[in-house]
Amino acid sequence: MTEFDAVWLNANLATMQAGSEPYGAITDAAIAVKDGRIAWLGPKSELPAFDALSTPLYDVQGQWLMPGLIDCHTHLVYGGNRANEFEMRLQGASYEAIAKAGGGIRSTVKATREASAEQLFVLGKDRLNALLSQGVTEVEIKSGYGLDLASEQKMLQVARELAVHHPIRIHTTFLGAHALPPEFSDSDAYIDYLCQTMLPELHRQQLVDAVDVFCEGIGFSVEQSRRLFQTATALGLPVKAHAEQLSNLGGSALVAEFGGLSADHIEYLDEAGVQAMAKAGTVAVLLPGAFYFLKETKKPPIELLRRYQVPMAIATDLNPGTSPLCNLPLMLNMACTFFALTPEEALLGVTRHAATALGIRDAGTLAIGNKADFGCYAISQPAELVYQQGVNSLRQLVVNGMPVVI
Ligand code: NIG
Ligand code: FE
């Protein structure tokens, strides 16, 4: 008899694997876990014999099981908030004008520097709890509101600490190149400091899983981004960028040139950039929350991304300035309403393609050998998760093969 640690029966599985069925669906199915991994899945009628008396069984009565959702772009460790800037923008001030006047990212830098690690931990934990209750099991967290060694270190340590105490799995990203800190007037000198001192030191402390840059007129140039990527690559770290958000500088093609994980935002991405990403296998991360909150009108080139088969991920971009929206299901809905993704594309964007955007191979789909992370939803079809907002249909969340408290 086959040995399992637990078995879920009478399930419908949205495996999100590629294949002939939409959502990789298997109806009337079962799924079994062993040692934190998916040990078996398929039609219930084919479930191998196992000891049904001693194995925990969950009869989910036709619920849909989805891979644990993955939020592959967040800035969820930060101090303070920017409700005042929200009010200013509602009265007509632009995001760029507020940033140039010393607000924007810099105001969150001040609040984050002033916050203790304990305060940041509590704030981060609340945000992670919200995501967990939505079925999220894996999250990327960026630094970038410290912009000096001690404060960037504090943010990344808090992210690592959250990983120890929270069921959600966490991937850290160094975003020292987010804005020019007040101590520097020369952005080239700051990039030198990041390359020579900050990044190597934080890497030495094993706080960095990937390296990001804000490649933009109000951020850093393509040449500066290239220097940072060279340092990251020499350290063996994968790269990604906030690119083509407000203008078309070519940051996405640069990520592709380095074989990077993802180019994120990409509203202004052109065909050459899409082609470069397709060739490199770089994921397009769509951030409809920031598009909505900044009242942008330029939409990412979805048709081109489809045509060149660039995988599209969707994330919250949770941050105090452009997306104070701690809600991944809402992003699914917005990706469809604003960017005309199909519900299936949207769900792939927070599962299989989000995993690729983080360089993860054993999550994002329900497949034998993958981490046993999945949610059980009381819905009649997967598109419901995208369609309805505000009512939580998540009935059980499983991480590492074990139900967690949500
Ligand atoms: O992803 N674009 C730069 N970074 C963030 C905004 C950060 C902020 O305004 O605090 C983003 O949109
Ligand atoms: Fe961001």
Characteristics:
single chain; 406 residues; alpha/beta; Urease, subunit C, domain 1; TIM Barrel; binds N-(iminomethyl)-L-glutamic acid; binds fe (iii) ion
Structure characterization notes:
Its cofactor is Zn(2+); Fe(3+). This is Imidazolonepropionase. 4-imidazolone-5-propanoate binds at residues 82, 145, 178, 245, 322. With 406 residues, the chain is an alpha/beta fold. It folds into two domains: 6-67 and 365-404, Urease, subunit C, domain 1; 69-357, Metal-dependent hydrolases (TIM Barrel, Alpha-Beta Barrel). The protein has helices at residues 83-90, 95-100, 105-114, 117-133, 149-165, 187-204, 222-234, 251-257, 271-280, 288-293, 302-307, 328-339, 343-349, 352-357, 384-387, and strands at residues 6-14, 25-34, 37-43, 57-59, 64-67, 69-71, 136-142, 169-177, 210-215, 240-243, 262-265, 283-286, 312-314, 374-377, 394-399, 402-404. Strands 1, 2, 3, 4, 5, 14, 15 and 16 form an eight-stranded mixed beta sheet that branches. Strands 6-7-8-9-10-11-12-13 form an eight-stranded parallel beta sheet. Helix 6 links the parallel strand 8 and strand 9. Helix 6 packs parallel to helix 7 (222-234) and helix 8 packs parallel to helix 9. Bound molecules: N-(iminomethyl)-L-glutamic acid and fe (iii) ion.
What order do the helices and strands come in, and which of them pair?
Blueprint: E1 6-14, E2 25-34, E3 37-43, E4 57-59, E5 64-67, E6 69-71, H1 83-90, H2 95-100, H3 105-114, H4 117-133, E7 136-142, H5 149-165, E8 169-177, H6 187-204, E9 210-215, H7 222-234, E10 240-243, H8 251-257, E11 262-265, H9 271-280, E12 283-286, H10 288-293, H11 302-307, E13 312-314, H12 328-339, H13 343-349, H14 352-357, E14 374-377, H15 384-387, E15 394-399, E16 402-404
Parallel strand pairs: 1-4, 1-5, 6-7, 7-8, 8-9, 9-10, 10-11, 11-12, 12-13
Antiparallel strand pairs: 1-2, 2-3, 5-14, 14-15, 15-16
Bound molecules: N-(iminomethyl)-L-glutamic acid and fe (iii) ion.
Fe (iii) ion (FE) binds at residues 73, 75, 242, 317, 319.
